[in-house]
Amino acid sequence: MADAKLDIVDQVRRLQDERVRHLKAVADIDSRLNQIARVLGAPVAVAPPAAAAAAAPAPRRRKRRRFAVPGDQAILNFIREKRNPTTAEINAQWRKEGRGGSADNLLTKLCKEKKVKRQKIVGGRGSRYTLA
Asked: 71-131: which CATH architecture?
């Protein structure tokens, strides 16, 4: 156990020495590049050390909105009005009302509750919905 600790301490010291050598090498490279730039007549540009990026303020979280008509009732009203709308039409109306996300979860809920019937669109994506 003591040998393992000594090995780790020795390894840390070697890594620190190696780091110092690398820092000196980088400084030497910078100095030579500056000499070359002076000889060529180019302006000497020493890059300042990169500053830590300022932390952007966290975006405000949206508040939960309340609508006069609940989501499931809004979907049922739309189906009653349009007779046979597609999923895309229902979702477009959902967004038009200013509601977040999509109506897909509520459509599934209404189908399971047998309030709405789902009919697959043959040869296409989505479904058509009718009142049960």
From this structure: Orthogonal Bundle (1.10)
